Amino acid sequence: MSGFKNFVLRGNLVDLAVAVIIATSFGAVVTTFTEWLTGQLGTADDPMFSTETGSFGNFMNAVIAFLILAAVVYFFVVVPYTKARERYFPEEAAGPTEVQLLTEIRDSLASKS
Question: For a Cys-Cys bond, which of 10, 36, 55, 85 suits 59, CB 3.0-4.6 Å?
């Protein structure tokens, strides 16, 4: 069971799942915007651009649905995942930076000469 916990919390599994969910929802926003935009460009006689579903209301509905989905994913997936990762896998204390190490080496060499 601990191996599965490590797989879920250490890997990019949650990041990938969130990306797929958000990208799919954003795809619907782009599709409805395109339908609305091409509906504005075309006329009823032009079958290439004319769409029955291309209304601004459909576009706004897709935007609102996307924002609600993004909020749900953030508050019910991302936030709990981040808290669980911080709890089970705390960040290791960072050591000295390269600049600090080089400064110490320089000071050590300067004191020997």
Answer: 36
Structural domain count of the chain:
1
Task: Kindly report, residue by residue over 36-52, the tens digit of the pLDDT.
Answer: 777 776 655 555 554 55
Q: Indicate the length of the chain as a whole number.
A: 113
Domain residue limits at 35: 2-112
Sign of CA dihedral 34, 36, 38, 44: positive
CB 36 within 8 A of CB 55: yes
Are 30 and 22 within 8 A, CB to CB? no
H/E element, 88: helix 79-88
Considering only CA atoms, which of 8, 3, 4, 2 is closest in space to residue 80?
8
